[in-house]
Amino acid sequence: MKTKFNVAVVGATGAVGEQIIRLLEKRDFPVDKLKLLSSARSAGTVLRFKGQEITVEEAGPDSFEGIDIALFSAGGDVSKELAPHAVRHGAVVIDNTNAFRMEPTAPLVVPEVNADMISKHQGIIANPNCSTIQMVAALKPLYDRFGISRIIVSTYQAVSGAGAKAINEMLRQSKEVLEGNDPKPDILPVGSLPVKHQIAFNAIPQIDKFQDNGYTLEEMKMVRETKKIFGDDSIEVTATCVRIPVVYGHSESVYVEFKNDYELEEVRSLLADAPGITLVDDPASQSYPLATEAAGKEDVFVGRLRRDLGNKRGLNMWIVSDNLLKGAAWNAVQIAEIIAKQG
Amino acid sequence: MKTKFNVAVVGATGAVGEQIIRLLEKRDFPVDKLKLLSSARSAGTVLRFKGQEITVEEAGPDSFEGIDIALFSAGGDVSKELAPHAVRHGAVVIDNTNAFRMEPTAPLVVPEVNADMISKHQGIIANPNCSTIQMVAALKPLYDRFGISRIIVSTYQAVSGAGAKAINEMLRQSKEVLEGNDPKPDILPVGSLPVKHQIAFNAIPQIDKFQDNGYTLEEMKMVRETKKIFGDDSIEVTATCVRIPVVYGHSESVYVEFKNDYELEEVRSLLADAPGITLVDDPASQSYPLATEAAGKEDVFVGRLRRDLGNKRGLNMWIVSDNLLKGAAWNAVQIAEIIAKQG
């Protein structure tokens, strides 16, 4: 049984890649050799890991020889092209893109919910979408206890979910507005689509491309991934995904209808005891989760718990987490830690 | 029958008062004499109306002699104290505060929904809360056609709803963050409460004070006012009200469950034909309502219409309107116009 692992990070110079490297260091992950990979454009960049300097190399089909665990976060196209090569070389791939999430052979894993699926992989384990991860992590203890019949979620998503360029655009536009100038939209809502909208001091109800059914891809990810992660197609999910001018941290207004009656005090105690969840819920002291306070932290923060006054099985919740950490890098590193423990 | 009216605006120097004066001018309201009233602090300010200069006077119990219509927007306490004096002097009060909204004798009016209630007033007509007005205006044609059994709403509310000081705070904090400094919270979420939170680049799930049931007053306003305006206690409403860094324009993610089956095309055509509603709903051209585009306009903008994939009677909508206009000043002036027509 191996106790140290050769690890590759694909997309090492990106926002999520940077957090993966930081977390491998912070968690003292049993790294034997760390290989940092990127596109040709970023290759040659020198990054630090545990006091060592590592030069980023261009990722290619033969980059994965001797690699045990490969963490991908360089976009869906890169994963589709290179993940099979990593598997061919014997690596376990933890993929942070949308490329394999709905593939029946790829487990879609949030460790707090379905860590048992990790051992069933056939080479590729998919990391869910950021907005799905924090929601299902918070709902898991309630699902186990009361059953869930439906979820109605509205998101308040940070621009960092659209990459470093979107952060820069939002900050630049904010400055332009404050100076009395016209803010020029350039990237958001979707870089590859023709129409752009101002994000500074605005709320854009579009994340990713529209599907034929009128939902955006981001909204459909929340619907499909939630069912797959819980392994329960009976959960009805409907989502409205909205980008707001926040840098780090997705917030979610989640309405959940349980299959069974519940007591609010039991919901509170289940969440207070759940791994990876921090309960922040004290109206008397105006305490509730906030994006600015969740930023940089690994946990999922839950608050504003209150019963629907019209439906005794309905509960309103406010769920906040750092979209680059639990929503991406941290969830991936958690999966890697479980794989490492299993040797 | 009168054809010209003596009009008083209480709170004339505030954000809503300013918009009321602008709208009376823009709509060529049949004003005989316009009296502008404020607190002692703002009295003496000179404002312009149709080319004339009008000096703002301090509002008091005897300010309303000869006044036909008094528009109040100077806070609940001022309304509670002075509106009865206005009524005593024979004026019809259109009150923009929370003071009388749930009083059984005060009609709570959104003209597109229940204009018929105006004639039933006993001196005071209440203007609903901003977040309620835009939602019920958009839901009215759908309520009439399909019936509504429940509404689940999450709001994305502009800081202007908390007054000019909150706008200044949000802009100041934004500048502080952009300059790399620590933003100092001073006003939001609730000026009169001890705990303050950063609003710049954040989302605060608290608008107004918490009630004993865990909901905020803003959330309970949406629940109670919706039932009263539709005159239908059977509508179940649950709300999550959130302040986001937007200056003007509240956005709302509204999930509505109809009593009867519906066709999406009919929803579209009902909304396209409804008075005061502008349908902005074309995913192919990435068209949907945006706060920045609704700002300064009187209409309620509706889009992102799509059926809940799990509940054939469920519909998701995105509703946006300028909270100072349809959400306050414009709704009040609409009511005043109907009173004027009735002489």
What does this molecule look like?
Chains A, B: Homodimer. Chains A, B: It catalyses: L-aspartate 4-semialdehyde + phosphate + NADP(+) = 4-phospho-L-aspartate + NADPH + H(+). Chains A, B: GO terms for molecular function: aspartate-semialdehyde dehydrogenase activity; NAD binding; NADP binding; protein dimerization activity. Chains A, B: This is Aspartate-semialdehyde dehydrogenase. Two copies of one chain form a homodimer. Chain A is of the alpha/beta class and 343 residues long. Chain A is 31% helix and 22% strand. In chain A, the strands form three sheets. Chain A has a six-stranded parallel sheet, sandwiched between helices. Chain A has a six-stranded mixed sheet with strand order 10-9-11-14-13-12. The longest helix of chain A is centred in the middle third of the chain and has 17 residues. The radius of gyration of chain A is 20 Å and the shape is globular. The interface between A and B is large, with 60 and 60 residues.
Beta-strand percentage range of chain A: 15-25%
Shape descriptor of chain A: globular
CATH superfamily name of the largest domain in chain A?
Answer: Dihydrodipicolinate Reductase, domain 2
Helix fraction of chain A, binned, reads: 25-40%
- Could you say what the CATH architecture of the largest domain in chain A is? 2-Layer Sandwich
Count of separate structural domains of chain A: 2
Uncertain segments of chain A are none
Multimeric organization: homodimer
Report the radius of gyration of chain A as a whole number of Å. Answer: 20 Å
Number of strands of chain A: 14
Enzyme class (chains A, B): oxidoreductase
InterPro entries (chains A, B): Asp_semialdehyde_DH, Asp_semialdehyde_DH_beta, NAD(P)-bd_dom_sf, Semialdehyde_DH_NAD-bd, Semialdhyde_DH_dimer_dom
EC number (chains A, B): 1.2.1.11
Domain Semialdehyde dehydrogenase NAD-binding (chains A, B): 6-121
